[in-house]
Amino acid sequence: MSNDAATATHTALTIPPVDGPGAEPPGFGIGASLPPADARAKTEGTFPYAADLWAEGLLWAAVLRSPHPHARILSIDTTGAAEMPGVRAVVTHEDVPGDGAYGRGVVDRPVFASELVRHHGESIAAVAADHPDTARLAAAAIVVEYDVLEPVTDPEKAFAAEPLHPDGNLIRHIPLRYGDPDITGDVIVEGLYRIGRQDPAPIGAEAGLAVPRPDGGVEIYTASTDPHTDRDLAAACFGLEPDRVKIVVTGVPGATGDREDPGFQLPLGLLALRTGCPVKLAATREESFLGHAHRHPTLLRYRHHADAEGRLVKVEAQILLDAGAYADASSESLAAAVAFACGPYVVPHAFIEGWAVRTNNPPSGHVRGEGAMQVCAAYEGQMDKLAAKLGIDPAELRLRNSLSTGDILPTGQTVTCPAPVAELLRAVRDVPLPALPKDSPEDDWLLPGGPEGAGEPGAVRRGVGYALGMVHMLGAEGADEVSTATVRVHNGVATVICAAVETGQGFSTLARQVVQETLGIEEVHVAAVDTDQPPAGPSTHGRHTWVSAGAVERAAKMVRTQLLQPLAHKFGMSTELLQITDGKITSYDGVLSTTVTEAMDGKELWATAQCRPHPTEPLDESGQGDAFVGLAFCAIRAVVDVDIELGWIRVVEMAVAQDVGRVLNPSQLATRIEAGITQGIGAALSENLRTTRGVIRHPDLTGYALPTSLDAPDIRIVKLVEERDVVAPFGAKPASAVPVVTSPAAVAAAVRAATGRPINRLPIRPQAAVATTNS
């Protein structure tokens, strides 16, 4: 589930005070629960999304997509479509300059399929017409002759299958080697785990508007989360220089990774350039499911070795990621999966094999917590098996093996950031459990299945499960993480210019708070984002909380120096002896006292700054290397009720303790944690984009079951550990990815406890939750 707003009216979500019991945060600046500036517009329905845009002379686009997951294209006849009244242009692969391919990292995906179709829903052609219905009819009138081929849908068979792509079927292989391969433990447990295909399911389907420019270029208005990369990809596909393509970011209706696949934007630009008219596309929900990337379905085999006291000795694992037809972010996802395959535990010996392969399944890519979520479900399943075999309490077993600052990951990297894993686990373990439901008719709504459920109260069993999760922050393996921001102040109003896209993660609110804190100016505006601004990078892995807010802070401090230097010089003191509080400038001795507005005296001050974290390095041929800038951790205790006769599951409560570094906005942080847990519950219980021989079975929100407010449990934030990461601006850590990673594993653990079943597949099928006995 990708809605980052609070979803459950009945959710009991609490957050500890920032500065002690009952403490009230300041009215603005860092630590305040500052509301989003666009909250009212979104609530009233006046916020401008790409689907709402209009332009004079507007044409409408439609895309023809393949009904087959694997086929050879014998011919494409666009004659009938081009001759239809109202049709202005039809474009295919022949109209794309150069090799017509794009991709983030690996350029392997065609704008339009030419010789081969490699997945169900792949783009074949696009049409521009004067009415959306005409465009759809014209797209349907394009005649494509296919030679249907046998699809490769089993990632295990992709190794021996004929190459599906000129680059081959293997995208990346990471063999991690750490320690002694011959060592064994006193106790060994094994497991096979399968993780399904979760869709990001954005609140609003993809939409965009392309407008041709007089210089022969084009402007594309869309909900991009990485506008500069999208601009460069588009320019290459259009045969233009990057400065002749402009991406203007519209309102983003929810994002949990890469919000906009360029495959939705590129046909628009081609059609606008061909017709000389503005062209708009508003995808249907089916097109959205077919076109964008999903979470990697994953097959995991594990073997854990431990001593008689339950301390881990060695972990062996094989991890296979199904990338679908194209590489996209599979290399990065595999690196995270392999590096975190042992979880936040001390493992002296680890041997992990990881592969990402191409198939004819739907494409996979960035979805929040990619790689880390899949392995968390598997290694926590192994920890439950190990606890059961040794007769040790599952929480105690985890405590005996928990990672701490100074420990070494299986990649050889030392954990230098705060890692309060044991503290987090103790916090959720020790909080009182929720009350048991009463066995009476008035409490039927508490039963799995809801008030109309067919189950009997006597068949309901309660289970409690634990999970520990970890994610990396920012990019990894040598990614150049840099962001640029400008802060301008004039007439008592500050403006932030930064190409960091507000995707629901709260960057715009945080940027306002940073400037308020630094300059004492309450009225702060964040400018709209486009590619005329310096790049800020993608909106993934909490980057903008770190690098973009860090750039805003540096720019604001430079403006602060410009503001204070004349006063300091006048009074013969350094700027360090002056402070700004509540819009007032005062000196340490009280001699100087004035307002920021008076000190500005009508001047306009501005500064531009960059933030770039310390560099990382790629994993080597043995999976070793300092690949990550920082790590974040989370502990969750899940309480579930399971009808062991029908397999219905109700999540009663999720108690969470999280390593946040520093609370910057309490309300916003609570919302992010709630949203992450709810998305994780969807992955645990219902979200699975099912396919049959590579064809998506139900590409709609009827067949794809998102959790609703009735599915959201009580969420208790029992502890937020504010141990600041000294290398991060403000000391804060990103908050939303790690609960997504951890919550599916916690739910699975609780269902195991309630049913005695192994629960090795996500989402959990009802038949898997039917207990073998009623005891």
UniProtKB/TrEMBL annotation:
It holds the Pfam family MoCoBD_2. It comes from Streptomyces yanii. Residues 1-12 have a biased composition (Polar residues). Residues 44-150 form the Aldehyde oxidase/xanthine dehydrogenase a/b hammerhead domain. InterPro entries: Ald_Oxase/Xan_DH_a/b (IPR000674), Ald_Oxase/Xan_DH_a/b_sf (IPR036856), Ald_Oxase/xanthine_DH-like (IPR016208), AldOxase/xan_DH_MoCoBD1 (IPR008274), AldOxase/xan_DH_MoCoBD2 (IPR046867), AldOxase/xan_DH_Mopterin-bd_sf (IPR037165). It comes from the Bacteria. Gene3D superfamilies: Aldehyde oxidase/xanthine dehydrogenase, a/b hammerhead, Aldehyde oxidase/xanthine dehydrogenase, molybdopterin binding domain. This is Xanthine dehydrogenase family protein molybdopterin-binding subunit. Residues 1-34 are annotated as: Disordered.
